[in-house]
Design brief:
- The protein is mainly α and about 270 residues long.
- It has one domain (about 1-265).
- It has helices at about 1-35, 40-80, 90, 100, 105-115, 120-150, 170-175, 210-225; strands at about 160, 180, 195-200, 240-245, 250-255.
Amino acid sequence: MLLVATQSEALIVGYQSAAQLIRSRVLKYVAAVWDGSPGFRDAEVDRIVARILPVVQAGQIQLANLTDAYIGRTSVLAGVTWTPGVATKELLAYRGVDPQVVYRRPSVTVYTALAGGKSYNDAVAQGSRRMMSIIATDLQQAKNRQATASIGRSGFQWFRRVLTGRESCALCAIASTQRYTRGDLMPIHPGCDCDVEALNSPRDPGQVVDSDTLEGVHSKVEQLTGSVDRGGRLPDYRDLVVTNHHGELGPTLGFRSQHFDGPADIK
């Protein structure tokens, strides 16, 4: 059992490293294309999109295949069933919006910033941040959705979020302490880079699977609010962290006050 546990831990680390390498290479390329553009008029934006779209989609497919292989190897170690498969077309079209349209949104950010009186450099920087957020989200969605599909075709019943420590925030930290059923799509937020670990147990492992991290969250909440109930009744985290439904991204972590009501909210 110790050997299996050690192999499983090594597998998670290896998966995280490989996924991060794909993510960083794609984002670095996108940043270089954006920063190297001589301008952001329609023709120039067309060239930007034409250059980055194939690279991003290749990254999405790489991440999906990597995730499927990772769940497959995890299944072998756990002794559960698994059926391989990557639905490339569905993964790339998950937003339900033409990516040509999605990847032009950062240029609109540039135009809007300029119209609002921002300097050219500041406007371009705002557009860059939006582009990087969109790309990071598309890469993360490829991981999440493939993990959901792969676990759904396996003998695993539950999974948990795994913090990477690079982009992990309070929302991710709280969510990572809980177990999810295999039919749940992992909710994310823009910039999230959490990974997934399938759980193998003959019985439900319980809702809380990482009491140490949860205790850390309790302690932080106590520092911020002055009160906390380790039983989870005060404050009620359901009033702090909820899963909103984003029209394109699907389930998305957020605070209860957050909603996605119109085009301005879409990332």
